[in-house]
Amino acid sequence: MKNIISIGWNSWLKGHKESILLFDSIAAASEIAFMLNGQWDGCNGVIMAKCDEVAVNTVTKLLEAAWCYQGASKAVLDRVATDEILCRYAMGEKIFINANLRCAVLPSAKLSEINLSYAKLSWADLSQANLSKADLTAADLSEANLSGADLSKAYLMRANLKGADLQLADMRGANLSSANLSEVNLTDADLTGANLSLADLRGANFNFCNLSGANLTGAKLIESDLAFAKHN
Question: pTM, whole model, 2 decimals?
């Protein structure tokens, strides 16, 4: 899986020569960061000041792990089937960090409090899904269908929601700080009390969107886009 390191890291690394390596498990990333004196990101990525591919290949062979550079065309994590997610969630498992669910079909799924941080959910159908209090930190939800979804009190910090459909979505109290919401459809969405500080809202459709009590501090937006939003 590529591009799972947070947007904040990408900004911090701009202009630097460090390499970001992605591994096929969180455990492998943690072990290899320790063995090669790298910086583990808490997920399946490791920042290396200087990448010695011979050393990386040696330790990954010992650990029976797979790796690639961030942005590489190949994926190192297998795609998770939607039935598998639903089954494991029903059995009480809620942690699916880095899950590859691109184009997943999960309409009306009941997934409250699930942890999908850093997950790939671009083009996924999550319409009418219950994602209340879900952890979607730095998840890729670009072009996803979240119309009518319950995202109340969800954590969406640094999430990429560019081009997503969020019309009629319940996002009351959601944390969307530093999230990318450019070109998002927020028609009739409820963002009462949501944290949108430093979010990119340029080109978003706010028609009849409820922004009462929302925090827009430092948000990137075009004032005229808010003309038809509700503020009371």
Answer: 0.68
